[in-house]
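ARCHIVE CARD
Drawer: 12
Card no.: 0347
Subject: one protein chain, sequence and derived structure
Cross-reference: see card 0346
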Amino acid sequence: MDNILHEGMTPKERVEAMLHLDTSKEIRFVTPLYRDGNLKLLEASSDGPTHARTLWEFSNPHYWANQLNIMHGGAHATIYDCLTSASLAVIARPGFYMYMGVSRTLSVSYLRGAKSDEPVLIECEVVHAGQRLALSRATMRRKSDGEVLSVCEHNKINSDPPAPKL
């Protein structure tokens, strides 16, 4: 985890470092999201120690589609879970979301279908991260016209062990 705390790292570098912590060759549930080149972090920023924003582009390959050839609802939820969690890396510090926390609630509202192979943009915001709980929200938009496809609210619990006192 120390690799996201190097002095002088930009918020974007911190998030990218968090995404690459798992260097195993093991295939896991979210491996296609992170390792297939379909996801790109465009921006990451913070205007304070408890608030962060990230912007992502996702190519939305057919792998994530349902029988209607649109992104599966479970794919929306998985993507939101992963990206709102990764956004915590912008503000993480020892004892404070270094392990990205665990989900308490994840609510997704679907407004329009995301057609397979049609790129989307995902805007994530850590609205507030307290010592125990964090609230994030996110919006998925069609890249071509900015239409909102779905929105998310994600509550997390900080699962980090206490930071050592020096």
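Annotation on reverse: The longest helix spans residues 73-87. The longest strand covers residues 39-48.
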